[in-house]
Amino acid sequence: MKRLNPRSSSHISSTSTQSYIVVCRLYTMPGVSEDYLEKALSEYNDKVNDLESAGDSEELLEAYVNRGCVLKMLEHYTSSLEDLESAAEMADRIGTDDGTYVKMYSALGELYQHFGMDASEPLGKAASRLNRISSSSHHFDARRVVSMCISSSEVLLEDGFYKEALPFLEKALDSTDSKMDPWMRNRRMETYDLMGELYDSIEDPAKAIECYDEAIELGTDLMKSGNLEDTEQLAATYMAKAECELDLGMMDHFVADSDSAIFLIEEMHKNGMIDSMQEATDICHNVAAEFMKIGKVNEAEKYLMKAMSLTLEGAKDYIEGQGKRLKE
Where are the domains of the chain? Predict the structure, then answer.
């Protein structure tokens, strides 16, 4: 895998810096409108057209990366791929700073997955410089480093490149360590959850349980303070941990974590966060089945009754909801 010669961020021109600031605003603005993106795209089109005739330059490489990222946000994936691959080819010839290098190849990884290509190739290149980027790197701040690492690891995990995802998850954990703000703590929980998925996928349930425990501890603390972003994720983590415990014959832990998942799903339903309790019903059936396997019929019956109760409660809520809609 070819590595480019790094070039310090001090070589970045003021023109490139201005372009970088615009793109950073695009990345961080919640709900950026399509009109705003189209306007930015028009500006980058003009910049690329002005620079292309002069040949390779840091400014043109930066313009390709910025336009490629905006095109990806607008879901113009083919054009985005063309721009980012042009930037990568130019970087092979003239080099680029670590931030641009990682940004370019992490974006290419997402596009490769979209087109059914091997995303591990560009993401492997991004990983080769992960340890050289920080919150002060070009194209990045503290949150963007973490978001990029999580997104890249998700791409790799979804495509079955489990060990290749590890450097991104380790970087995300390192970048969120000792960070106390809720956004960072939610991302740290998410990272531990993904790391648990990774170890579970490579058949290391004991290590997966350790990671899920870390995610659950963070999620529980965030929920107590009212800062948990996704209660469903916490319930899913309990479910994933329970399955690993079952693999290791830890029946009591399996039951306890299954109960925790059921409780969270019930609470979400009571608070109107989800419409169905089917997941909770399925967990009850799974626990009942495991009790039946070891001959604990009474315990199995309790979970079957719980499943029936959840089903009836769900049906009652559905009927009441339909009645309200008819009255409206």
Answer: 1-129
What is the C-alpha to C-alpha distance for residues 298 and 25, in angstroms, rounded to an integer? 60
pLDDT greater at residue 101 or residue 11: 101
User: In this predicted structure, what is the pLDDT of residue 26?
Assistant: 46
Q: What are the angstrom distances between the C-alpha of 122 and each of 3, 72, 81, 146, 209?
A: 11, 16, 12, 18, 30
Q: Residue 295, class by beta-carbon neighbours within 10 Å (0-12 exposed, 13-18 middle, 19+ buried)?
A: exposed
pLDDT at 20 over 80: no
Which pLDDT belongs to residue 12?
34
Q: Are 159 and 200 in contact (CB under 8 A)?
A: no
Which tokens sit at 301?
Answer: 């019956």
Tokens 């005739």 sit at which residue?
A: 53
Question: What's the whole-model pTM score?
Answer: 0.84
Residue type, 207: K
Q: Which option is the CATH number for 1-129: 1.25.40.10, 2.60.40.10, 2.40.37.10, 3.20.20.450?
A: 1.25.40.10
Task: Cite the beta strand spans of 19-87 per DSSP E.
Answer: none
pLDDT of residue 21: 35
In 3-state terms, what secondary structure has residue 317?
helix
Query: 307-315 long-range CB contacts below 8 Å, 24 or more apart?
Result: 307/281, 310/266, 310/277, 310/280, 310/281, 310/284, 311/277, 311/281, 313/277, 314/269, 314/276, 314/277, 314/278, 314/281
Q: Work out the average pLDDT over 293-313.
A: 91
